[in-house]
Amino acid sequence: MFVYLNGKIVPAKEAVVSVFDHGFLYGDGVYETMKVYDGVVFMIDEHLQRLYRSASLIGLTIPSVSDGLKIAIYETLMANSLRNAYVRVTVSRGPGAIGLDPDFCPVPTVVIIMEDFKEYPAAYYKNGISLIIPETRRNLKEAINPQIKSLNFLNNILAKIEAKKKNAYEAVMLNADGNLTEGTISNIAFYKNNTLCTPSIACGILDGITRGIVLDLARREGLQVKEGTFTKEEIYGAQEVFITNTTMEVMPVSKIDDRTYPVGKIAGLLRTLYRQEANAYIANIKSEGPALWGQNE
User: Fold this and answer.
1) Cα separation of 94 and 108, whole Å?
2) Residue 51 CA to chain centroid, in angstroms?
3) Which among 106, 175, 198, 245 is most buried, taking Cβ atoms within 10 Å?
4) Which uninterrupted H or E stretch holds 79?
């Protein structure tokens, strides 16, 4: 396996980051995850735009322009001979003296790692997964802007620990006001009273790229969509629930705490439409020429 590290593609065992890196010491940095379908990185421009947005919100300058990073992703993909993959791009503040001052770190660390993507078990999509609403609350948006996809994941990890203790796959957190926000690695939506409901950005969530695509597809299909403020009691009474993220796409939920839900038609429809959207994107990118998606002439 090969890793991109600060401008070079090196064997994974040689991809070493300093113990003085502020990403390691303080969680000071940002990242993005992407999915590769048949050699094409899905929504790569949108993911990189969000990466640069996250970096700007913490005053971090990424040393490569977006196009340069895009090329680096594809070169790393080719070095690993991967066609379907999980990709993570991480940019930390970089190595520097101990202390919180960002000026201690003159040069950021840029890492691209990837691995062969293994599909989620078919049983997850057929039978649904279980969630909990944990005691851990989502960080206040006034404390940490949720539009920053940061390396500091302790809030999410604490919720994940609660989920594991209850044999649940995911945890969906409430905010300080007791309203639904998002999962540890996902956005959530539910169908109730002929309306597809999902917490709004104002609730303190990351604007998930998959979430946005799914909501657009729902509207295109004529479904009523409501982005708003919802309590756990409202989702307890839902007809269907599902979560979304880059790798799982649209994943049905069959249980939240002690409430159960059918794996229904809405989640199935949106998953089908999402995959069609991905396939169309891939076909379009490939039609533009091999140089854009990592194939030799």
Assistant:
1) 4
2) 11
3) 198
4) helix 66-79
Q: Is the CB of residue 47 less than 8 Å from the CB of residue 112?
A: no
Closest CA to 140 of 176, 173, 171: 176
Q: Look at residues 141, 50, 48, 34 and name the one whose alpha carbon lies nearest to residue 84.
A: 34
Residue 251 bridge partners (DSSP): 243
- What is the per-residue pLDDT across 96-141, written as a single tens digit (0 to 9) for each? 999 999 999 999 999 999 999 999 999 999 999 999 999 999 999 9
Q: What is 226-237 written as a DSSP string? A: EEE--BHHHHHT
Q: What is the pLDDT of residue 64?
A: 81
**DSSP-derived secondary structure for 92-114:** E--B-SSSS-GGG--S-EEEEEE
292 — pLDDT class (breaks 50, 70, 90): low
Residues involved in catalysis = 149
pTM of the model: 0.94
pLDDT tens-place string over residues 81-95: 999 999 999 999 999
Q: What is the pLDDT of residues 136-182, one digit of tens each?
A: 999 999 999 999 999 999 999 999 999 999 999 999 999 999 999 99
Integer angstrom CA distances of residue 237 from 44, 160, 171, 186: 37, 24, 18, 20
Alpha helices in 98-171 (DSSP H): 122-127, 154-165
CA-nearest of 228, 131, 227, 229 to 177 is 229
Number of H helices, E strands in the chain: 8, 15
Distance between CA atoms of residues 137 and 80, nearest Å: 39
* DSSP per-residue letters across 16-45: ---TTBHHHHH--EEEEEEEEETTEETTHH
CA 120 to chain centroid, in Å, comes to 15
